[in-house]
Amino acid sequence: MQAILCDSRFVEAYNNMGNALKDAGRVEEAINCFQSCLVLQANHPQALTNLGNIYMEWNMISTAASFYKAAIAVTSGLSSPLNNLAVIYKQQGSYADAIACYTEVLRIDPTAADALVNRGNTFKEFGRVAEAIQDYIQAVTIRPNMAEAHANLASAYKDSGHQEAAIASYKQALCLRPDFPEVTCNLLHTLQSVCDWENRDTMFREVEEIIRRQIKMSLLPSVQPFHAIAYPIDPLLALEISRKYAIQCSLIASRFGLPPFVHPPPLPVKAEGKHARLRVGYVSSDFGNHPLSHLMGSVFGMHDRDNVEVFCYALSQNDGTEWRQRIQAEAEHFIDVSAMTSDVIAKMINEDKIQVLINLNGYTKGARNEIFAMQPAPIQVSYMGFPGTTGASYIDYLVTDEFVSPTRYAHIYSEKLVHLPHCYFVNDYKQKNCDVLGPVCPHERSDYGLPKDKFIFACFNQLYKMDPEIFDTWCNIVKRVPNSVLWLLRFPATGEMRVKAHAAARGVSPDQIIFTDVAMKHEHIRRSELADLFLDTPLCNAHTTGTDILWAGLPMITLPLEKMATRVAGSLCLATGLGDEMIVSSTKEYEDRAVELATNPAKLQALTNKLKEVRLTCPLFDTARWVRNLDRAYFKMWNIYCSGRHPEPFKVKEDDSEFPYDR
């Protein structure tokens, strides 16, 4: 202050005084100082940056960005406005602009390890994992003791399928920083994915304590909701994890500064004799070669066009595959929004007057849940992509079924439960895979190194879904059934040696565990019938895989628990009409049922024959019937909204008078 009083043109003093006032919490006075500095020197980069920082803290993102851009325009040697502008670009989904900012920071200082990590993070979010890995490697070379760089390198290795390298980097990060909750949790997930079960129970207890502590402190949990669905943790804790992630999505949405949207009026679709249609929007990053599109490919074009107008908003670029082309051709409106920011997408959805908006991602890769947090539509629904609760106040309904999400478990969901008849989990085999119904399988056991004369138990789930308890059960089954083997997938390949070692420790010869590579979809379905019986994983069931093997005519054994992801296979089995023969209620019953079927060839053959016979008639594979019931659900949601009621749970009935699909 003395410097300013002595020489009112002492520009730096104004800037320094502004910083001191800001640090003291006197922000309005700090702004005055920075503005005084700019009156004296309009292109003062530090003052412009400091004002940007204040507006950034106030969540006035566009104002902050304008000050950062002004600072960048008047200097080429200051990193901070570039770093901060990059953060804004990244939050808004403008990854290329963010990368350009970090690249400029690295031009100013090639040894800026923080900028390398930040650019690596942006590359990773942008799907350019190889470039992310290069940035992280460079960062740990410059600063070997930077725990964050090792942790992020580990995550990038994990995403690109290099699990062993990921485990090594996670462990290095924990050596440098033992109290690193995110790394502890990610290491556990990576170890699970390769069936490394050493200290598993201890690590799960540690991770559960971390999550509870973080939730109590209102921090974002280090376990992602998608990982939590497959963990043996309390379902209410999984709900709390989802809630925290939903709040984070709301925070991201708020940074765009959009005013609340005006929604279509709550008028019945057929009001006053007019012939209108219900406008339904689907948002997904998985319109392409992805299990979601393999399962739902026909759905978007099967809605009743006389009464439902369908809009698909694609969050991912065209991958050129048959699945993308088909959905694009069959959906009434298909819009590629992959290059747009989330606020622009939300505005488009609102301008399209969408009445029911469906989130097909949930907390899966490529999701942009902030779009839903902006609430561009009056009714918002979670379906298919994420088998659990979103924990989001802005998601009204979860489309599920009575077996997967029983009313007695409604307390573990934030959404109102909509129970579809039969099974909520749709598939497209009747349209796309009818050749599987042919009597002759084009594959032979010898094609995959499978023995011709042995009983083959199989599980084609990803290895992270396995746990020591179910593996113990499988080993007991193989030991009790003479001349039997267990067929698993290298999913990933790095789990094979550990699984064989676990088998040997349990008295099962490693050559009784046969691994094969993951196959392309069509081959995978067809070769499934080479097995005799499918053994499901209780902690996280076969979902897509479950429909694959049932369509191939391969019976399964499944043990439902409490959470949604543990009950899907049971619902699939029930929708074939043969659920009683495939669903068990305890680990002992699981083992005994598998042994009974394997040692009673006539009984197993009868079940297999019945399964093959019902494929074209049972509800599970009747896609058109399923879509008709989904239309009933959408109209019911809209009619509840029109009556002025809050969202409420309901069970869809195949009854046109009570649940019309067209009004």
Automatic annotation (TrEMBL):
GO terms for molecular function: protein O-acetylglucosaminyltransferase activity. Residues 194-431, 444-630 form the O-GlcNAc transferase C-terminal domain. Pfam families: Glyco_transf_41, TPR_11, TPR_8. SUPFAM superfamilies: TPR-like. SMART domains: TPR. TPR repeats lie at residues 11-44, 79-112, 113-146, 147-180. Coiled coil: none annotated. The keyword Repeat applies. It comes from the Eukaryota. Pathway: Protein modification; protein glycosylation. The keyword Repeat applies. Keywords: Glycosyltransferase, Repeat, TPR repeat, Transferase. Its EC number is 2.4.1.255. Belongs to the glycosyltransferase 41 family. O-GlcNAc transferase subfamily. This is protein O-GlcNAc transferase. It comes from Triticum aestivum (Wheat).
